Amino acid sequence: MTWNYRIVKKEYPDEIVYQIHEAYYDKGKKKPRSITKNPVSPFGETIEELAEDLEYFSEAFKHKILNYPEDFPWLMK
């Protein structure tokens, strides 16, 4: 299983929010199979690791925005 960071759009009655989640893919699949329940924050045990994680976060802007729950109806069951 592989993963990357993805932007996820969530619509609520009074607002729309965009957050970054980890998205997980089955081998060979191009569409994510699942995402983390909660959004994630940049992390590093050193300043260099934090900078590297921020670079990975910026990669999320190069991918299609995912819509929750429309793109993951099976997670709602």
Question: Could you explain how this protein is built, in words?
Answer:
- With 77 residues, the protein is an alpha+beta fold.
- The protein has one domain.
- 17% of the residues lie in helices and 32% in strands.
- The chain is built from 1 helix and 4 strands.
- It has a 4-stranded mixed sheet with strand order 3-2-1-4, covered by helices on one side.
- β2 and β3 form a beta hairpin.
- The longest helix is centred in the last third of the chain and has 13 residues, at 47-59.
- The protein is globular and about 40 Å long.
- The two termini are 22 Å apart.
Question: Strand fraction band?
Answer: 25-35%
Q: What is the tally of beta strands?
A: 4
Helix content: 10-25%
Give the overall form: globular
Structural class: alpha+beta
With strands numbered from the N-terminus, the spatial order across the biggest sheet is 3-2-1-4
How would you characterize the largest beta sheet? Answer: 4 strands, mixed
Secondary structure tally, helices:
1
> Helix and strand succession?
EEEHE
Distance between the termini: 22 Å
Draw up the topology in text.
Elements: E1 2-11, E2 16-25, E3 34-35, H1 47-59, E4 66-68
Parallel strand pairs: 1-4
Antiparallel strand pairs: 1-2, 2-3
Short recap of the structure:
The chain has 77 residues and is α+β, with helices and mostly antiparallel strands. The protein has one helix at residues 47-59; strands at residues 2-11, 16-25, 34-35, 66-68.
List keywords for this structure.
globular; 4 strands; 1 helix; 4-stranded mixed beta sheet; 77 residues; alpha+beta
